[in-house]
């Protein structure tokens, strides 16, 4: 046998594989059985694994092209059942007439093709290299294959990446490269799955290795709960990272992490002794690096900066003053989210009426309106609050894994299944609440099984003949029209009527009539104990005019950034992120922010906003620019916002007046 870095372990893996092959009735002279489904089934197979294929091809392979382009090797990607999904590279080393064994859909499990890199990696769950004579079948001994399993964000084995050749590549080099490639694929799968909604912490022991595939990745929520991690993070921290709080992992606070400038390395200490370098990345709907505007004002003086125009603090509504401040990670109750909007109040009243009855609820609303917050409030108010609330994002789980995630599976139910099996998310919600978010994205096949569970109140795990009773409150949510999906055959009609006992519609933030109370309520919820200054009238006016395309989720992000920038000061326009003003500027006849600019222009004898031509048609008169520049104390960002122009344009105009070199 060829020498390998892991010596005896590798030899045992090969011997065990050969023993399995004999148990399957294979002999070294057996010809490989090239099991390949029909063309139609191949199409279904590729569609089901499109996310994995596209991630591998577009986001990982280009980084290794310079190594693989001249190596006469073939790169193969298989699914968790050993069926080839795609291959790239050079097939010239293949034996004549054997190329069909490398077509999409062909199975490479050991039962059909003996000991081989793909099949044995699947059988063992380990990276492995199978040299020529280590193949059980003589027909496969013309090549050397190096393969490593791919695990998704939930640590389920979903595929294998293989590099095969007729040994042109050094053996140890190839296996190491395959491990790097699969680690890159796993990292990208996690990033692509969670980047829209959650925070990322990337960390490593060396600053120069922060961007490598061997860095640890943690995905955490706004409340600090770690909801996913790559395998490298487990190794670096030496901990089981399932559903822990990130503050328990490092000697820092959640506030420091989420407010740290994006992309700027920091030092963290774990367990009081292990030092790491780390960077934080925010959800994609907060694509800003908030600047601390206080530094611009205070750099030239030891005195605290004062606003250019006095801004009065707006007192909190009595409604909030009567309640003790809730920590940001403490769930709301239904009463707490009813701040006076008629549509929200109606939804709360209706939900209370059926709170402890066996009636399913379907919540409609745009992305970010607070559907999950409403469900958490409903759960906390119900008699099931002492039991689990299990939230499932049907759009986030890959289509081929939804069944096993929801219904569970017995050990050995399929290739790559955990040896302990899985009880499934529905059974985890027993006696509690099951929240199916983005229900319209659930595959039709899974819809049929879910309907059966709701009808029979029993769950049968994959690979099992035993059913388990479940007692759940079902709450679903969607931002799609399920009626339209039913008409188009995308959603089962019988399931639609099963999940729509009570339909609730949550309005978008721009249409809510309780915005002032909501602004203060969220400020109160996310502020620190020493942040008592509140929101300025200037900011409240901007908040009321903003279109809020990201709804309440966007509002929370803006407030968190503003709180970080203002520290203990009154929150003013200068503490708001750039993207906030970009949304305002996209609206017709709106400049942002306007309060300070209008008051300043009025003092100088200029026309007020109500009488002025929109800024995108006629900007502020240039003769007032020096005065405005002086009034803003040289703050370029603030002045550009007041004028509704880019900083580049402002620099050019200032240069014309000799105000900027």
What topology emerges from the helices and strands here?
Layout: H1 7-23, H2 39-48, H3 50-59, H4 65-68, E1 74-79, E2 84-89, H5 110-113, H6 117-124, E3 128-130, E4 144-151, E5 157-165, H7 171-194, E6 199-204, E7 216-220, E8 226-229, H8 231-237, H9 254-258, E9 266-270, E10 274-281, H10 293-298, H11 318-321, H12 334-337, H13 342-353, E11 361-364, H14 371-381, E12 389-393, H15 402-407, H16 425-428, E13 433-437, H17 444-456, E14 458-459, E15 468-469, E16 473-478, H18 482-487, H19 493-499, E17 502-505, H20 515-526, H21 537-545, H22 551-566, H23 578-585, H24 595-603, H25 625-631, H26 636-643, H27 647-656
Parallel strand pairs: 11-16, 11-17, 12-13, 13-16
Antiparallel strand pairs: 1-2, 1-5, 3-4, 4-5, 6-7, 6-10, 7-8, 9-10, 14-15
Helix pairs in contact: 20-22, 26-27
Describe what is shown at a glance.
Helices cover 36% and strands 13% of the residues. The chain is of the alpha+beta class. The model is unreliable at 1-5, 285-329 and 588-623 (pLDDT under 50).
How would you sum up this structure, described in words?
This protein has 661 residues and is of the alpha+beta class. The protein folds into four domains: 7-186, GAF domain (Beta-Lactamase, 2-Layer Sandwich), CATH 3.30.450; 195-282, Beta-Lactamase (2-Layer Sandwich); 342-506, P-loop containing nucleotide triphosphate hydrolases (Rossmann fold); 517-656, Orthogonal Bundle (Helicase, Ruva Protein, domain 3), CATH 1.10.8.60. It contains 27 helices and 17 strands. The strands form four sheets. A five-stranded antiparallel β-sheet has the order 2-1-5-4-3, sandwiched between helices. Helix 20 (515-526) packs across helix 22. The model is unreliable at 1-5, 285-329 and 588-623 (pLDDT under 50).
């Amino acid at each position: 046998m060829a020498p390998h870095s892991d010596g005896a372990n590798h030899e045992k893996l090969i011997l065990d594989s050969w023993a399995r092959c004999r148990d399957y009735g294979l002999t070294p002279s057996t010809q490989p059985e090239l099991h390949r489904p029909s063309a139609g089934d191949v199409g279904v197979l590729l569609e089901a694994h499109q996310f994995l294929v596209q991630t591998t091809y577009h986001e990982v392979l280009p980084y290794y092209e310079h190594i693989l382009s001249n190596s006469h090797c073939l790169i193969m990607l298989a699914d968790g059942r050993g069926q080839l999904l795609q291959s790239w590279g050079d097939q010239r080393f293949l034996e004549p007439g054997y190329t069909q064994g490398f077509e999409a859909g062909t199975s490479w499990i050991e039962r059909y093709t003996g000991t081989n890199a793909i099949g044995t990696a699947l059988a063992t769950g380990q990276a492995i290299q199978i040299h020529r004579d280590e193949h059980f079948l003589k027909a496969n001994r013309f090549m050397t294959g190096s393969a490593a399993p791919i695990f998704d964000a939930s640590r389920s084995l979903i595929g294998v990446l293989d590099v095969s050749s007729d040994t042109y590549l050094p053996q140890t080099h190839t296996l190491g490269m395959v491990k790097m490639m699969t680690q890159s694929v796993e990292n990208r799968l996690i990033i692509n799955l969670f980047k829209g909604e959650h925070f990322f912490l990337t960390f490593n022991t060396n600053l120069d290795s922060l961007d490598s595939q061997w860095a640890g990745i943690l995905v955490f929520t706004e409340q600090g709960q770690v909801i996913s991690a790559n395998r490298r993070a487990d190794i670096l921290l030496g901990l089981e990272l399932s559903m822990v709080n990130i503050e328990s992992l490092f000697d820092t606070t959640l506030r420091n992490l989420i407010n740290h400038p994006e992309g700027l390395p920091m030092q963290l200490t774990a367990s009081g002794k292990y030092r790491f370098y780390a960077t934080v990345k925010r959800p994609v709907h907060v694509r800003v690096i908030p600047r601390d505007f206080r530094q611009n004002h205070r750099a030239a003086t030891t005195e605290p900066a004062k606003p250019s125009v006095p801004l009065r603090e707006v007192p909190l509504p009595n409604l909030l003053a009567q309640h003790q401040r809730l920590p940001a990670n403490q769930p709301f109750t239904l009463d707490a989210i009813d701040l006076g909007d008629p549509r929200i109040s109606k939804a709360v009243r209706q939900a209370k009426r059926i709170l402890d009855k066996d009636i399913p609820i379907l919540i409609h609303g745009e992305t970010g309106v607070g559907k999950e917050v409403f469900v958490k409030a409903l759960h906390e108010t119900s008699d099931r609050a002492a039991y689990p609330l299990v939230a499932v994002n049907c759009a986030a789980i890959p289509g081929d894994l939804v069944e096993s995630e929801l219904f569970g599976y017995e050990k050995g139910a399929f290739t790559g299944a955990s040896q302990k099996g899985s009880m499934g998310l529905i059974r985890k919600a027993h006696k509690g609440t099951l929240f199916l978010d983005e229900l319209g994205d659930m595959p039709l096949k899974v819809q049929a099984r879910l309907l059966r569970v709701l009808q029979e109140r029993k769950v049968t795990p994959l690979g099992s003949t035993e059913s388990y009773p479940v007692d759940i409150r079902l709450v679903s949510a969607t931002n799609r029209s399920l009626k339209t999906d039913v008409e188009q055959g995308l959603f089962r009609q019988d399931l639609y009527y099963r999940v729509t006992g009570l339909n609730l519609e949550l309005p978008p933030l721009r249409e809510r009539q309780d915005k002032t109370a909501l602004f203060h309520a969220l400020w109160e919820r996310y502020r620190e104990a020493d942040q008592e200054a509140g929101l300025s009238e200037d900011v409240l006016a901007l908040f009321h005019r903003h279109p809020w395309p990201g709804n309440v989720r966007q509002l929370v992000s803006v407030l968190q950034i503003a709180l970080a920038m203002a520290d203990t000061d009154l929150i003013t326009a200068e503490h708001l992120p750039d993207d906030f003003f970009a949304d305002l500027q996209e609206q017709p006849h709106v400049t942002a922010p306007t309060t300070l600019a209008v008051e300043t222009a009025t003092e100088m004898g200029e026309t007020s906003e109500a009488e002025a031509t929109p800024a995108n048609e006629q900007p502020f008169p240039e003769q007032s620019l020096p005065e405005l520049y002086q009034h803003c104390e040289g703050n370029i960002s603030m002045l550009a916002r007041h004028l509704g122009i880019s900083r580049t344009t402002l620099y050019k105009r200032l240069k014309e007046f000799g105000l900027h070199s």
